[in-house]
Specification:
The chain is an alpha+beta fold. The protein is built from 14 helices and ten strands. Strand 6 and strand 7 form a beta hairpin. Helix 2 runs antiparallel to helix 10 and helix 12 packs antiparallel against helix 13. The relative contact order is 0.18. Belongs to the ABC-4 integral membrane protein family. Pfam families: FtsX, MacB_PCD.
Length: about 425
């Protein structure tokens, strides 16, 4: 109880000292404020970037394997000309995998046809992406429809002239309506709209269904060569629930090597891609960004810390006479030390809180003005407060220690 009482008195002394020197206190805060603002702003920016990129990666599916010609990530050791010689996935590969796989919960063959013009009457939409898919596309991707329905199995098998359009296309072609049941012209053919995708917005990887037209692959086969490399054919395999993606990937490698009749000493002539490959690359990038931001912030905080330490030495010098009087009245050394240490911590803590407030205000402003969700996690708030307290202790301990060791007689004599 005695210690708590002394701590309270030390706190009040420190608070009174800060009140009496408002301008000096304000100027002392700036360095710490800038340092904490820099550190937390960088960490929050990285968290925001990571979260938004992760949302994009999650669309690819955490339990999906993409059988393609090109790998998403290359170690740089495999010769590029060997990649060029690889065949693109064929419908034969798709059919064999569908029949022989034991781990798949869904498998689809898909192609992408970019930059097409979609027409309805006098209205047109340029730059639409037409994707032709087999029936189980809805099992390998999360299909979120605002209106209408997905293809029936009969429509997929027979190549019916039907399609699902993105939200942006629906808004431009049919202002005030969805266009269900209407016919639009795609690649020179008319198709009936049976569904409209829910609004997504463009994510950081550019993955969005807003300007997409989804049609059955068997319908596209009547118009184009769906196995041509220019359309980037891929086979997407989503594993059954409870089966690890590595097990799915292992089975796909064995089946593809068997389908392509590869000998044991031959390299794979296909790529097996998965979302974790992108996540691993992103983690490496974020580690570097976090490190760089932390170093910049630490230098800023150190500058602020030196400023606080300098102010505390000045404060000890100014109050030497008062320290002598307090000691002559029986004040213990730790009581004097607490006064100045608490004063230093309060200075840094106020600077840190101001820096956090500026970051928080910035996140609210960006969320209101920009089409992006900026986050400020509690872990960063705790980190900012902890750094502020730490800098306060480091900056104030030496001045506080020197004040506590002053001789009371010499201190009272000082001017």
């Amino acid at each position: 109880m005695i210690f708590l009482k002394l701590f309270k008195e030390s706190f009040l002394f420190a608070l009174d000292a800060l009140r009496q020197n408002r301008l000096r206190t304000l100027l002392s805060l700036l360095g710490v404020t800038i340092g904490i603002f820099t550190i937390i702003a960088v960490y929050s920016g990285v968290d925001t970037l990571r979260d938004n990129l992760q949302k994009s990666v999650n669309k690819l599916g955490s339990n999906s394997v993409y059988v393609e010609k090109w790998p998403w990530v290359s170690d740089g050791e495999y010769p590029w000309w060997k990649f060029m010689q690889r065949p693109v996935p064929k419908l034969r590969d798709f059919n064999e995998l569908r029949q022989r796989s034991q781990t798949t919960g869904g498998i689809s063959y898909e192609i992408g046809i970019d930059a097409r013009t979609i027409k309805y009457g006098s209205n047109t939409v340029d730059g639409a992406e037409v994707n032709a898919v087999t029936h189980e596309h809805d099992k390998t991707w999360n299909v979120d429809l605002q209106d209408g329905r997905y293809f029936t199995e009969l429509e997929s098998q027979n190549g019916a002239p039907v399609g699902i359009i993105g939200n942006d296309i629906a808004e431009n072609l049919f202002p005030g309506g969805t266009g269900l049941g209407k016919k639009i012209k795609v690649m020179g053919r008319y198709i009936s709209i049976i569904g409209v995708f829910a609004k997504e917005g463009t994510d950081m990887l550019g993955i969005s269904a807003d300007k997409q037209v989804l049609i059955p692959l068997n319908f596209a086969r009547n118009i184009i060569d769906v196995q041509a490399e220019r359309y980037r054919p891929s086979i997407i395999v989503r594993g059954k629930d409870g089966i690890p993606v590595e097990e799915v990937k292992g089975e796909m490698r064995g089946l593809m090597r068997s389908i392509h009749s590869l000998r044991p000493n031959q390299d794979d002539n296909f790529a097996l891609n998965e979302s974790t490959m992108l996540t691993a690359q992103l983690d490496q990038v974020f580690v570097i960004i976090n490190l760089a931001g932390g170093i910049i912030g630490i230098f800023s905080v150190l500058v602020g810390g030196f400023g606080i330490a300098n102010i505390m030495f000045v404060s000890v010098k100014e109050r030497t006479n008062i320290i002598g009087i307090q000691k002559s009245l029986g004040a213990k050394n730790y009581f004097i030390l607490l006064q100045f240490l608490i004063e230093s911590i309060l200075l840094c803590l106020m600077g840190g809180l101001i820096g956090l407030a500026v970051v928080y205000g910035g996140t609210l402003l960006l969320n209101a003005l920009a089409d992006v969700e900026v986050v400020l996690y509690m872990k960063n708030v705790v980190k900012g407060i902890s750094i502020s307290v730490g800098i306060g202790i480091v900056s104030g301990i030496i001045p506080a220690w020197s004040a506590s060791k002053l001789d009371p007689v010499e201190a009272i004599r000082s001017n």
